[in-house]
TrEMBL record, chain B:
Membrane topology according to the record: Multi-pass membrane protein
Subcellular location: Cell membrane
Pfam families, alphabetized: MbhD (PF13244)
Highest rank taxon of the organism: Bacteria
Organism annotation: Acetomicrobium hydrogeniformans ATCC BAA-1850
Protein name in UniProt: Monovalent cation/H+ antiporter subunit B domain protein
Length: 164, 91
């Protein structure tokens, strides 16, 4: 896919970062507001799709290697399973960090309140792991879709493997 | 007031789903499907499921449309290999 016009690319350069920041917000506030790992990961993957469509896949693959997204996928899955097994002294996925103090375990105030960001224990870690996995998976789908498209448009002679 | 908005959104979902089937140009059909997905996410929000609404807006309206458009471009360039690419991509 060739890059789109300079208008589309400039608007994408300015506004695509807000999509990425909003996706990170939805992932990190997954235990307080609607959303979570899957929804925020889908929003961040929309950011990848926006860059891929506006700048063309050739320059996008010049910036980022596609193996990075596969490694995101693997790292997210391993992190989620590790978070599950760390609580195994009680049960699988036991929230062993809650109410222990520190970064993830601050106490929740009593009464109506807006929610404390650091109060979730392992839920935030699991959300981050799921978000990483969904970003990797959906971005890998988009990138391999683009590589197959380039394979078809070159008549199938060159093969996918010379795309590195 | 809320009922009117609710019924209007349901009607627009049906209309956009009809247009997604009715268009001969496949790009128009994909955009109509995107509009249907966006209206469904609005409907989920009215039914007080904001979680599902975010997932539907991100995946249905964003990613699926991008994947469909990529597949559509690949189909065009495979149907007219070589010279016809520019003319067909502009339409």
């Amino acid at each position: 896919m060739r890059p789109l016009s300079i208008v589309v690319r400039t608007i994408c350069n300015i506004f695509a970062w807000f999509v990425a920041i909003f996706g990170a917000y939805v992932i990190l506030h997954g235990h307080l507001t609607p959303g979570g790992g899957f929804q925020g990961g889908a929003i961040v993957a929309t950011f990848i799709a926006l860059l891929l469509v506006a700048h063309g896949g050739k320059s996008f693959l010049g910036w980022v290697k596609k193996e990075i997204f596969s490694s995101f996928e693997g790292a997210g899955l391993v992190a989620f399973v590790c978070v599950g097994f760390l609580g195994l002294s009680t049960t699988f996925l036991y929230n062993f960090l809650a109410l222990k103090g520190g970064l993830f375990g601050s106490a929740v105030p009593i009464g109506p309140n807006a929610g404390v960001l650091n109060s979730s224990g392992t839920i935030a870690l699991a959300n981050i792991a799921v978000g990483l996995e969904v970003v990797g998976g959906l971005s890998a789908i988009l990138i391999f879709m683009f590589l197959g498209m380039r394979y078809v448009s070159e008549g199938g002679k060159e093969g996918v493997k010379d795309d590195k | 007031m809320m009922d009117i908005a609710h019924i209007a959104i349901l009607l627009m979902i049906v209309i956009s789903a009809f247009f997604a089937i009715w268009f001969d140009n496949l790009l128009n059909a994909v955009i109509s499907l995107c509009v249907m997905s966006l209206l469904i996410s609005l409907e989920f929000y009215i039914l007080q499921a904001p979680d599902v609404a975010i997932a539907e807006a991100g995946i249905g309206a964003g990613l699926t449309t991008a994947i469909y458009i990529m597949a559509l471009k690949a189909c065009r360039s495979s149907r007219w290999p070589g010279k016809g690419n520019d003319k067909n991509e502009r339409s």
